[in-house]
Structure formats: C-alpha cells, structure tokens
Request: fold
Amino acid sequence: MFRGCRWQLIALILALVLFLAGALFRLSRGASRPQAAAPTPTTVFSGLATPQATEPARPTASGITVSEADSEPAISSPAAYREGLVGAVQRLNPLYAHLNPVDRDISSLIFEGLFATNEYGEAVPRLAEQIVISADGIEYVVSLRQDARWHDGLAFSADDVVYTMSLLSDPEYARISPLGAFWVTVETQKLSEQLIRFRLAQPLSSFPHLLTIGLLPEHALRGTTLAQLAQHPFNLSPIGTGPYQLAELRLSGEGAISAVELARAPVFMERQGSAGSYALARLSFHLNPNAEAALDAYASGAVNALAVVAQRELLLQLPRSRVYTQIAPSIAMLIFNWEEAPFAERRLRQALSLSLDLPDLIERNLGADATYADSPYSASASVYLPHPFWHSQDSAQARALLEAAGLLSSDEGEAETNTVSTDPGAGGARFSLLVEDAGPLRNLAGEIAAQWGQLNIEFQIDAVAAGELSERLTTGRFQAAILELPVGADFDLYRYWHPAQFGIGRNYGAAANHEVAELIERIRGEIYPNRRGALYQQLQEEFAEQAIAIPLYYPLYTFVAGEQFDGIQIGYLASPADRFRGIGDWRLATETG
Reply:
C-alpha cells in the first residue's frame, strides 16, 4: 500500500530528523550560554511606530507598552523645543481633547481634521482636498487627499472618516461635548475610498469649521465603541496623521506622566509641500502642577517655552525671551436678563452702554491682560467689524434715551433725584450685577456700577464663586451679569443670541430681537462667502443698534519662547492649541539665513 508514495515517506522521515537535530542544537546552546541579567525597567513609554528596545516590551495593567531596556532610551538627547504646560495628560484623543487643555494642545500636533483654521479664522482644507456644497446647503461632498498616511504607515481613507463620525454621532457623546447633539443629526456616507458625503438636517455654512475635529484611525480601533474608547489604551499610544507622533511618555518617581516627547512624523514629511519645513525634529512638553512651577522651570532652563496662565506683565519680565500676544478665544460680555423688567427695553440697554467709558475701565482694571471689545466677534477674526457705539461715552444722550422711553421718574422735577422706574408709580428700582468673585472682575463691576450711578441707576454688586456664577446663569437667576463666552472657530452666534437657545444653549438672558435672529439664521444658510461677509457686517451693526449686550473686553493670550527660536507667529486663535498652526516655520535662530 506504500509503494505509490515511498518518496513522500522518505521526505517526511528526513524532515523529522532535521527538526530533532535543530531542537537538540538549540537546547545545548542555551545550556552553555551564561544567564543574562534581569532587564531594568526604564521610566519611558515608547510610542514610536517601531519601538527600539533591547528586550521585548511588556503590557502594563492599563494596556500601555512599557519598554524594558538595559541601554539608554531610544530618544535620550534633550529636545531643542521644551514647553512647560500646567496640568496632566489624560487622553491624547481628539474626541476628548476639549475636556483637558494639556490633551488639547498635544493632540493638535498628532491628529488632523478634514479642515483647519488659518491665521484669519477661516476654514481651509487639511485632510480634505476639495469640498462641493449643494445649492440648498444641505449636502457636502468632500474629496480626501491621497498622500496622507497614519503614523504606522497605513493610508488614510474614507473608512477613517466614517468611523470617527460614527463615534461623534453616538448620543452619549452629547454628554461630554456641546456639539454632540449636532453630530447626531449628520448623516455620513462613503462614496469611495477618497470621497465622503455629509448630509445635514438643515443648512449650516459653518460646517467646514466643525470638520476641524481630529480624525481617528479605523484600522487601529476597529470595533471599539464610544463607551469603550474612553478607557482604551489608544488614548496614551495615539496614532494620527499630523506632523508629529508620540515618541515617549516620561514618568515621575510617583509614576505620573511628567513629560511627553513628540518626534517629527516621517510619513507626514513625505507629503507634497512638506520638504524644507518642520525644522524642529523633536518637541518636549513638561507637565507642571501649577503656573508657579512652570515659571520656575522656565527660569531654570528646564523648559524654553511657556503656555501658561499668568499675568502678562510677569511674563514680559522673563529674561532672554520673546513674548507673543494674541486675542484669546473668548470675549467678556455684560448681558442682561430680558425677562427681568425693564431690560427688554432697547433704550435702557443703549443708555447703560453709552454711560460707560469702556477703554478706560478695561485698561485701569485689567491692564495688559485684556483690551476693550467693540464687536461680538473676536478682533482677530476675518469677519470682525468694530463699531464705535461700544466706546462712545455720552451721558447726556444716555439720559435722553431714558427720558424718551419714559423710564426716568423725578421727585418734583429735580434732576438730581431722577431714578429708573419699572413702574411709573413705583418710585424707582434697584438692580444687581452678577460677577465672579475675582479681584480684577469685582473691581471692574464696581466701577461700571459707579458710572451707572451717575444716571441715578443703582446696581448692587453680587460677587459669587465661579460654580455659583455658572449655576445662576443657567437658571436665569440674575438681572445683569459679566461673563466670558468662548469664541469657537465657526463664527456662529446662534447659541448665544438666538431666542431658540434660551434655556438650552448659552442665551442665558433670553435675548430676543427679530432682526438679529433673522441675520443669524441667514448667515447659517448662506453658502457663498461674499454674501455671507455682507451679512456678518449687517449683524454687527444691528447688534450695536439694538444693544443686545455690552461687549466689554477681549482677554489676551500670551505665549513665551526663548530668543533662540525664529519664525514664530500667532494668528487667529479658535483654541490655544492654534499657537502651533505655523510650527512648520519655527526653527532655531542658528538655522536661519
């Protein structure tokens, strides 16, 4: 029966002999070799696509890979750029980055969105190559750039967009993001490997600005739900498409992450147009518990750049430094509760604004940390149009407005006893001005109340802790209030000043003006930039004419870097992380020329 397969049997027997011989050789070699010393764990988490360690990596309890090496870490020389941050790393993931400033700043260098904001705040393609918008503003077809790859070398494709959008549209995302409710309404369809179609529930001209959120790699997270993503090891071993990739997470003696090292991403440098840019091959971010520790690290030379909340006057005194200042992504407003009579009356709001000398008030109380505001938009935004009404003090005109509105009552015609009255027979009224209980803001509120007092309008200062301020704004328990509103990348004032957002958005004071609401809606639906620009101008003029609220000041964002760096410029900030927008042009001064 074996006659027909004798050659096969001979080959099988020969293979078994060779296998046994090889096994005996390996056993004898292992017995004669001296035992190696146990590897010493380093305090380095390797995040490079190809880990460089002399011994196999082992997973920690959290799933992060820790390199065990007898030699120095793969990246051991100090980075030329070393920035001090305040806070801790939690998740290097663009979907969660808005929850933590440190995560936001570092993630912005690792991940990219379909679009990015330029130095004027306009949305420009990043991972997108081209966008086509339907005439009704409902459908957006985006073609993807074909030269983008993930840090692990795999190609970026429509699957990554579809996967990321599936996480954003999870109803649970609305619990952690104010935009979560919007993403639920967006339909995403893959048309091809390089073509995506988005369908909106209603027109939204600022949609490309929302597509600046970083995208996630589907191949690395396939099957991972939003609920699982929050605790996924990916959050500390991210894979992006941005100009820098994670190299190391350094630990302190207590086991906390003390520094994050980023390395220039080779796959990014292969893109068209990247040659000759990104001279800084390595970036290092040192984490500090507070601003004082970060300042000490800068003074000692441990770091040579600072992105830290501190008084600008203090930062200006740092030696061997260059200070860069830009309008922060927020605006301080003095808002009124329109449900509290008589603040729904336009002429009262106008009179209160005209009685204030805002440039002087802001300079005296906030100094170099802010500049007075004259628009509901950021002064660094492309749509910004200053209006003189906001800094035109005219007490006589203010009083005339009050008289025309029938809001001034007098005792036997004596002007010095005039008071604002909510009821012609009530004999006047007193109001309160809600403000956070912080020194400069409390003082500013006091001086505002003093200038209003010249109209015989009495405001009592109600200074409260930040948490109580937020709660009272949300529940509408105020008459007038000073607060800072975040300014996003989308130039959309809907959530602040449209009547539909009272009680669910940030229209805390129930502001309701038909002209302003209509202009906001038209801007949202206008897909042509030139027409939209004209509407932005009309909106700012109408906002001033109606005195919807009083713009007070723009906080200033200050960034400090050592004088050894050249090429740093800071444009429009939709987020403090936008300071890195031009990092491709940053370089050491010795590298110029």
In short: The domain at 330-555 is CATH 3.10.105.10 (Dipeptide-binding Protein; domain 3). Residues 325 and 526 are 33 Å apart (CA to CA). Confidence is low (pLDDT under 50) at residues 1-12, 14-76, 411-418, 421-428. The chain is about 30% helix and 25% strand.
